[in-house]
Amino acid sequence: MLLFAIKGGKMVCLYIGSTKPYSGKSLTSLIISLKLKERKRLAYFKPVGTLPRKVKGKFIDEDALFINKYLGLKEDISLLSPVIRTRGTILKLLKERESLVPSIKKTFNKLSSGKDIVVASGVGSLESGASLGISGIDVAKALKAKVLLVSLYTDELIADGIILAKELLKDALIGVIINKVREDRIDDVKKIIIPSLSRKNIKVLGVIPEDKILEAASIEELTEELNGKILCGSREKGKELVKNFSVGAMSMESALRYFRALPDKVVITGGDRSDIQLAALETDTKAIILTGKLYPNSLVLSKAKEMGIPLILVSTDTLTTVEKIDELLGKMRVRSKTKIERAEKLFAKNLNFPLLFKDLKL
């Protein structure tokens, strides 16, 4: 995320990137934008988009559209994502070697007119887009930006990527947000990792705890993403959030033991595995995804209808289906007002906004 602030005639530029994709940049972008909008004239864009959606004949990044609308901004949608990165455009640009940075700067100049702050979401990791000259580091340098990293907590080696980023960005790196930290790891982060980063002159501005509700997807979202067909189940069930997933590729006895230990789950299994489907229906299951475009037998369908459990038919095989679900959960799925308000409270409690704004001279 890039954030530009005008103060006393001087532009402050903040780039929020990450050491890994799917670290929470879009949500961070939205929450910080909401906070800034309370005190500054704000514009928002995403210089490099990767989720194209056609609107009025133009391809616009899906997250950029949503965030702009949620913020209540009235900008020309053609300015929201000047560069759309797809496989086709990547190959074309690699061949033509055309620089995309001037297009990003031109869009920013239009958006920044009459504004105090322009927020721009980054994409992927800091190195994403390096072959096209539009990596996070390229964009930050071109815009003479200050950099804030959103670093996804994975394990104790999280500091490695942050320290490497510091070596590349030097004094341009003003701080780090460590995101999605498991409850049993928060003490380690605060007592060990933060002091070790401090010794490298790296400031941690926030430690955001993991929140399973924010990361959950609804059954409707799963069905849409998988191009699935709901064979049975109520509309109310479709709005329920799913936090747990299980792949049914074992014997029925093993499945029963495993399923009983995992509540509120979606089971992913072949459409011809009626034994696994029946085992799932005997335990706390929210939905069953049937892969391979294979319809369930009459017993499974009848029992699922009776229980009101959605059966979702998809054409892809089990492995591909699991990969698609992983991709879905990695995207920004915090789209409901309730979940965004929950995220605002989480960030307000765990991100040092006053220190961030002080570093930006706001």
Strand order of the largest sheet: 3-8-1-2-9-10-11
Q: Tell how many strands the DSSP assignment holds.
A: 18
Q: Classify the helix fraction into a percent range.
A: 40-55%
Judged by helices, strands and strand pairing, the structural class is: alpha/beta
DSSP helical segment count: 16
The CATH architecture term of the largest domain is 3-Layer(aba) Sandwich
CATH class designation of the largest domain: Alpha Beta
Write the CATH fold name of the largest domain.
Rossmann fold
Count of all domains: 2
Radius of gyration: 23 Å
Percent of residues in β-strands: 15-25%
Judging from the principal axes of the Cα atoms, what is the shape? globular
Largest sheet: 7 strands, mixed
N-to-C span? 17 Å
- Summarize model confidence as the mean pLDDT: 87
- Low-confidence blocks of residues: none
For the record, what is the CATH homologous superfamily label of the largest domain? Answer: P-loop containing nucleotide triphosphate hydrolases
